[in-house]
Amino acid sequence: METGKDTIEKIESLVKDSFLVNVDGITYSARDLKAVRDEPTCQPLSLNSLQGLADYINHEFKPDAGKNTYFLSIIDETKIAVYSNILGKNRKREALAVCELRGDLREYPFDRFLSQEDFIIKIQSLFGTTDDKDYLLSYAGAVRDDTEVNSTDDGITQSVTIKSGISGALVKESKTKPIVTLKPYRTFREVEQVESAYLFRVRKGAAPEFALFEADGGAWKLTAVERIKSWLREHIDDKDFVILA
């Protein structure tokens, strides 16, 4: 049986990839000259609440036990991890626990126009209590299916003319609040949800539609991280436990 050139080159490649070299008691891979070390690590504990994370730390790490050895890293407003300091010859950090906001929690669909019913349901269920939440519910609830909506928008405020009744004789002109302040649920529930500014708009179609557009440039995320840090500092027994945000 004749062996082709491609087959020979493949065999040579496999041999090279698996070839190991020992230098001064350290085993290296001949492929990339990196040391080959087996340093087992644990599977990170998976958590989904700040209370669960605080309970874990208070149970596993007594005061001063984790000093200069372990630390908390608040990665963003939805994810936190407990890491070890650099360990072993591979100089890697070990993740002991990861706390992440559940991905199946519903969020409001910003930047999208919604029907009246869908808008009211989502405002009612996905936001904390604020005066502007009550305003939006009242405003959207006042619009009926047979309402004729004609609006003028100057880019700052939006005037909506609502004609009601069979003859359309009753006319009401209402200016929407251009910016509303709301508290959507979007970080861990143990902390006070962050208020943010949103642009409120109404659009006519077969039926009136409503939308909210984010207007704070994502600044709320920094505030959320600080609130998470403050909550953890208060609920972790070891007040010297390092928390990075």
Please outline the helices and strands.
Layout lengths: L4 H14 L1 E4 L2 E4 L15 E3 L2 H11 L9 E7 L2 E6 L10 E6 L13 E2 H11 E2 L2 H12 L5 E6 L4 E7 L5 E7 L2 E6 L11 E8 L5 E6 L5 H16 L6 E3 L1
Parallel strand pairs: 3-6, 4-15
Antiparallel strand pairs: 1-2, 4-5, 5-6, 7-14, 8-12, 9-10, 10-11, 12-13, 13-14
Helix pairs in contact: 3-4
Protein name: Phage protein
Organism: Treponema ruminis
Radius of gyration over all CA atoms, rounded: 29 Å
The DSSP helix count reads: 5
Query: What do the pLDDT scores average to?
Result: 81
Separation of the first and last Cα atoms: 65 Å
Structural class assignment: alpha+beta
Count of strand segments: 15
Strand order of the largest sheet: 3-6-5-4-15
Q: What are the low-pLDDT stretches, counting only 5+ consecutive residues below 50?
A: 166-171
Number of domains: 3
Label the overall shape.
elongated
> Biggest β-sheet, characterized?
5 strands, mixed
* Proportion in β-strands: 25-35%
This entry's quaternary arrangement is single chain
How helical, in percent, are the residues? 25-40%
Q: Give me the strand/helix succession.
A: HEEEHEEEEHEHEEEEEEHE
Structure notes:
- The chain has 245 residues and is α+β, with helices and mostly antiparallel strands.
- The chain folds into 3 domains: 1-36; 44-105 and 226-245; 114-214, no CATH class.
- It contains 5 helices and 15 strands.
- The chain has helices spanning 5-18, 50-60, 116-126, 131-142, 220-235; strands at residues 20-23, 26-29, 45-47, 70-76, 79-84, 95-100, 114-115, 127-128, 148-153, 158-164, 170-176, 179-184, 196-203, 209-214, 242-244.
- Strands 3-6-5-4-15 form a 5-stranded mixed β-sheet. Strands 7-14-13-12-8 form a 5-stranded antiparallel β-sheet, covered by helices on one side. It has a 3-stranded antiparallel β-sheet with strand order 9-10-11, with no helix packed on it.
- Strand 13 (196-203) and strand 14 (209-214) form a beta hairpin.
- Helix 3 (116-126) runs antiparallel to helix 4.
- Mean pLDDT is 81; it is low at 166-171.
